[in-house]
Amino acid sequence: MSDDGLLSSLRYLFADFLDEEDTTPPFLPDGLPEEAVPAVSEGIHLLMDYQGATYARLYVDRVKRFVGRIDAGLLAEIARLMAERMAYEDAIRIAQCKLAEYRDSGGEILSTDIKQFRFDELVDALPEIAADPVLMVLGKIGWEHRRVSIPFSTASRWGLRRLKAEAWLRRWRRFSIRYGQERVWVERWLHMIARALLKQPQSVGAIVDTATMIKGHGDAYRQGLADWHAIIDGLVKPVFDGVLPLDDLADAIRQAREAAMPDPRQVSLKRAIAEIRARAIGAGGNAAAE
């Protein structure tokens, strides 16, 4: 992550906690192409609802890095996918969405959704100082990965009160372990896009689209995240570092993604990455010999 990315994230982190009542949405970035305006506007609206004004300003700050550096269509796609990832799904978000559904229906929609979480997922939503001792205890008794079913219900007064209590915890979200992990991921994704613009511009679209690998929560989220890192560490970063001679990185990313399976061991994906690397290194050696 760049120093600018780290500083901006920290600045907005503390501003969000200390100035929670700020409800003024940020302005669109100067020079934003018309084609990207709807995506960025929707992203601001989403993140204002998700976390607040300062979080939306962090989003705009990140979008600004690419204004004038990339075509309008790709900029709009970066803005759309980044907003989706910044509004990552956790128990707090599910509670927010259930309350919004109830409110927008005028109290007519009374429903209960049952979601499964691992204990460590729930604890990761806490500030690190509170989460660490809990995770230590869960690890010692072997419950860290144990699943628990959580009802999110608007069908009773008690359910509504619990949803409101969970949604209130959003003020602590940006001090949580999960937020720190998501911040690092977003910054790394943006960093890879920036490197692609300099090293292999034709691969930018493929790298932008890798954000779609990571969705939701639970096993699917963890699998997508692990697969993403495998592709970035095995193909993308080595190409940009100049140690893997791949002329068509976009096609290599496509091949690797096609090989990805819902397998925690990543056997198929790792095999595909190894084969792509071997072909590229072999072709590079033959070219050098000629």
Primary descriptors:
290 residues; mainly alpha; 3 domains; 14 helices
Question: Overview of this structure, please?
Answer:
The mean pLDDT is 91. The two termini are 39 Å apart. The chain has helices at 3-18, 37-50, 53-64, 72-86, 91-104, 119-123, 128-141, 157-168, 170-173, 177-199, 204-209, 218-240, 249-259, 267-289; strands at residues 112-118, 147-153. It contains 14 helices and two strands. It folds into three domains: 1-87, no CATH class; 91-168, no CATH class; 200-290, no CATH class. Strands 1-2 form a two-stranded antiparallel ribbon. The relative contact order is 0.09. It is mainly alpha-helical and 290 residues long. The protein is globular.
Principal-axes geometry comes out as: globular
Q: How many strands in all?
A: 2
Largest sheet: 2 strands, antiparallel
Round the Cα radius of gyration to an integer and report it.
21 Å
Strand order of the largest sheet: 1-2
The separation of the N and C termini measures 39 Å
Structural class: mainly alpha
> What level of helicity do the residues show?
55-70%
SS element count, helices: 14
Uncertain runs are none
Mean pLDDT: 91
Give the SSE order as H and E letters: HHHHHEHHEHHHHHHH
Number of domains: 3
**Beta-strand content:** under 5%
In short:
By secondary structure, this protein is mainly alpha-helical. It is built from 14 helices and two strands. A two-stranded antiparallel sheet has the order 1-2.
